[in-house]
Specification:
Elements (H helix, E strand, L loop, with lengths): L28 H44 L3 H23 L5 H19 L2 E3 L12 E8 L8 E6 L2 E3 L2 E4 L1 E7 L2
Parallel strand pairs: 2-6
Antiparallel strand pairs: 1-4, 3-6, 4-5
Amino acid sequence: MSEQPGAPEANTAVENHTAAPEQPAPLTPEEAAALRTRAAERDKFLDLLKRERADFENYQKRNQRDREQERKYMYGPFVRDLLPVFDNLQRATGAAKQAGETGPLVKGVDMVQTQFLELLKRYGVTPIDAQGKPFDPNLHEAVVHQPAPGQPPDTVIQVLEQGFMNQDRVLRPAKVVVSKAD
């Protein structure tokens, strides 16, 4: 056969060498035991990591709920300290009306009282409507029980001191007079 330069060789076999994967050497019993021990430690630490992660996520959720609760009720102590001012305004208006006074001072005090209630409402504080309602020990504090003809027993017949709610919590229960059975 004559070989020409640049001509492909005829009948050249391309050898495809693929290396067979090497088989790892068998483990000695000591190495196998050490490997099992390390795998058990790994599993233990992985489990610990998962529990710690879950605990931290629960902590974050609980902390978020606590902050939201704190924000929701943060004005409660301040408002509780202001309620005696409202009570005095209410007493002044009531005493003036009872004396038959209707002058500008009585109207001014009544306007301040109304403005005070509107301000409280903006911060989630609302009065408890007790007059004529069934007595509820969660909302009312019974100061006196007295017979009241025409009223069913355990009905609020007079409000002595206005109660207030802060969102869904009782800030101060209403002090009331409750009817009793004859």
